[in-house]
Specification:
aminoacyl-trna synthetase; three-stranded antiparallel β-sheet; BirA Bifunctional Protein, domain 2; alpha+beta; eight-stranded mixed β-sheet; 18 strands; Helix Hairpins; 439 residues; 20% strand; single chain; nucleotide-binding
Length: 439
């Protein structure tokens, strides 16, 4: 949620920054016009309530003076004022709902350092990394080897990814991990969680269903309600699209102790997504599923520390890819490509040799006080004694299924086996996956 005072006091600047976020020109004008109506109604209501108090005093004085005529007139005036107040309250309730709805659909404003542009073609690469010794792996070849297979083909050949039965049981974009596939997925997320714990994150095991209020606090609702899986009576609960929702809401409606900040938390959870806008995209494989595992990182910080913490969180995500020795690059997203609640986002994209391109595997964002305002998450400043909104940061560390897919593609061998990355071997228990040990 944006600060309405900032929008009022910096109208032109705010309007341009919203246009940069692909908000239509005129949307802010409508919001501020309704906000002024709301404030005008509040002033009128306050004046009428003050008048009601005066009339109440007049009634009391007239009764004490036994002036029945004056008392009856004052009572009549009271009834008139009460009716006016009731009418104003109705108008005020309607305009407040309108203002709140409009404000809830406005995205966060981008940090000035974010590249301005309407789409992903304006994203800017920050850095690129690959292992120094690729040891004959696919990325080492200047030309794609003829034996190279897509991750879903490898998985099906080895019998470790079962898409056909996933579709039979649940429909499109579902699968079973089988044998070594399930063990590899488990090895990957246990490795990720251990790495984040070493970096100071506290691990949580969260609910997988949350209230609509929780989805509102993190910015998923109301704008993206069609992308969510709503469940329960009257659709009062939602399956989480990311552990970010449960992690941020862990401290919703709370005042944190300043000594707790920065607070680092992490969780593994399934993510449930409708993928409403993904028709025809990535119809095969692990890239785009309705249910997938993801390790999420969240931070609560003081405002002055949040961008330094954003850089640290990005490094924490990069650390996973570097230890897995997977080639990747980091891009800074443009104003038109960032998520709804973000003020700045870095995407980490890992190399997929069969696609000859990088694919997103992590998105790391600073939402500044956008979520904290919606979720009423504050801390008391020890110097001023005043309450301040925290800044919240979130990042994938990483999407587990996409990491498995990247490993299958980047560690495949000509004989059809998969070499297990060295850091995963203590978790997986073997150094290769072959047809002999796939189950």
């Amino acid at each position: 949620m944006l600060d309405i005072k900032y929008l009022r006091n910096n109208r032109d600047e705010a309007n341009q920054r919203l246009i940069d976020r692909n908000v239509e020109d005129g949307v802010l004008d409508k919001l501020l016009a309704d906000d002024e109506k709301r404030r005008s109604l509040i002033r009128k209501a306050e004046q009428l309530k003050a008048k009601r108090n005066q009339v109440s005093d007049q009634i009391g004085a007239a009764k004490r003076a036994k002036d029945n005529s004056a008392a009856q007139k004052a009572i009549s005036d009271m009834q008139t004022v009460a009716g006016q107040i009731k009418d104003l309250d109705k108008q005020l309730s309607a305009i407040e709902e309108s203002v709140h709805t409009q404000a809830a659909h406005l995205p966060n404003l981008a940090d000035p350092r974010v590249p301005v542009g309407p789409d992903d073609s304006y994203n800017v690469e920050q850095r690129k990394w690959q292992p120094t010794d690729l040891q004959g792996r696919p990325a080492a070849f200047s030309k794609t080897p003829t034996w190279l297979k897509a991750h879903f083909e490898i998985g099906e050949d080895l019998g470790i990814l079962d898409f056909q039965r996933g579709v039979k049981v649940s429909g499109a974009r579902f699968l079973y991990y089988v044998g070594a596939g399930a063990r590899l997925e488990r090895a990957v997320y246990n490795f990720m969680l251990d790495e984040h714990r070493r970096e100071g994150y506290t691990e949580l095991l969260t609910p997988y269903m949350v209230t609509n209020e929780s989805m509102y606090a993190t910015g998923q609702f109301p704008k993206f309600v069609d992308d969510a899986y709503e469940v329960g009576k009257n659709q009062s609960m939602t399956m989480i699209p990311t552990a970010e929702v449960a992690l941020v809401n862990w401290r919703r409606d709370e005042v944190l102790d300043e000594s707790e900040l920065p607070l680092y938390i992490t969780a593994l959870s399934p993510a449930f997504r409708q993928e409403a806008g993904a028709a025809g995209k990535d119809t095969r494989g692990l890239i785009r599923l309705h249910q997938f595992n993801k390790v999420e990182m969240v931070k609560f910080t003081k405002p002055e520390d949040s961008y330094n913490e954003l850089e640290k969180m990005t490094v924490d995500a990069e650390n996973i890819l570097q230890k897995l020795e997977l080639p990747y690059h980091v891009i800074r997203l443009s104003t038109g490509d960032m998520g709804f609640g973000s003020a700045m986002t870095y995407d980490l994209e890992v190399w997929f040799p069969t696609q000859d391109k990088y694919r997103e595997i992590s998105s790391v964002s600073n939402d500044e006080d956008f979520q904290a305002r919606r979720g009423h998450i504050q801390y008391r400043d020890s110097k001023t004694g005043k309450l301040r909104f925290v800044h919240t940061l979130n990042g994938s560390g990483l999407a587990v299924g996409r990491t498995v897919a990247a490993i299958l593609e980047n560690y495949q061998n000509e004989d059809g086996t998969i070499t297990i990355p060295e850091v995963l071997r203590p978790y997986f228990g073997e150094d290769k996956i072959s047809k002999e040990n796939a189950r």
